UniProtKB/TrEMBL annotation:
SUPFAM superfamilies: Thioredoxin-like (SSF52833). The gene is nuoE. It comes from the Bacteria. GO terms for molecular function: 2 iron, 2 sulfur cluster binding; metal ion binding; NADH dehydrogenase activity. Gene3D superfamilies: Glutaredoxin, NADH-quinone oxidoreductase subunit E. Keywords: 2Fe-2S, Iron, Iron-sulfur, Metal-binding. [2Fe-2S] cluster binds at residues 101, 106, 146, 150. Binds 1 [2Fe-2S] cluster. This is NADH-quinone oxidoreductase subunit E. Signal peptide: none annotated. It comes from Saccharopolyspora thermophila. Residues 214-252 are annotated as: Disordered. CDD domains: TRX_Fd_NuoE.
Amino acid sequence: MTEQFEFTTNEHNVHDTADTSVFGEDVRSDARQIIARYPEPRSALLPMLHLVQSVQGYVSPAGIRFCAEQLALSTAEVSAVATFYTMYKRKPCGQHLVSVCTNTLCAALGGDAIYRRLSEHLGVGHDETAGTPGEEGSITLEHAECLAACDLAPVLQVNYEYFDNQTPESALDLVKALQRGEKPAPTRGPALTDFRGAERQLAGFFDDLESTVAGPSAAPETVRGAQLAHERGWTAPSMPDDAELPPLPEKR
Ligand code: FES
């Protein structure tokens, strides 16, 4: 059974007494760099939570306390944010996070069948991990809401990188390759790392910027409309200078 922290009436005691020594001087130096990007330390909370996940693979009680100490927030304020967003994990994530879009368009085109096939193969359900979290070949599976790539449905992501136009068979081949320790190339975007590596990038650290930006960035399906408009000389009408704008509501 994987470790998971639960939010109970005494949750803040858990966070306030957690041992933060897992965050060594190198992480504290990264934290200072993140905080320096913002006029107010508290504004750095979202990338700080990604930094914590890059170290531990989830937002642990120690991670909550570390963020609170670094940003002069209470542990209650940090945990309120960490539990609001699904990208912040409350139990240790696998080496790879596989997110299958099962929102309307992907589901209709096979997303549900993809999720079912992967769930059967891995023997886990939503937000569960096959294998020991963090170890090579371990996979956390999750349902995802629309991944903003409906023109390429059905899609899935591995560590937030896209694999477009999937089938149950192609998705299964992909997951088996991940379990063997391989890192197949995403359809678009940078080469695969692992969940913790992706979290470091989300914290704003690109240790190998060249390879991070090397992948294809746009699918032909996505830019087809713009290309057709360009070929046919279609443009949107410009805004007339004397256009009447609706009145702004009064501030209360
Ligand atoms: S419904 Fe799957 S990407 Fe939009």
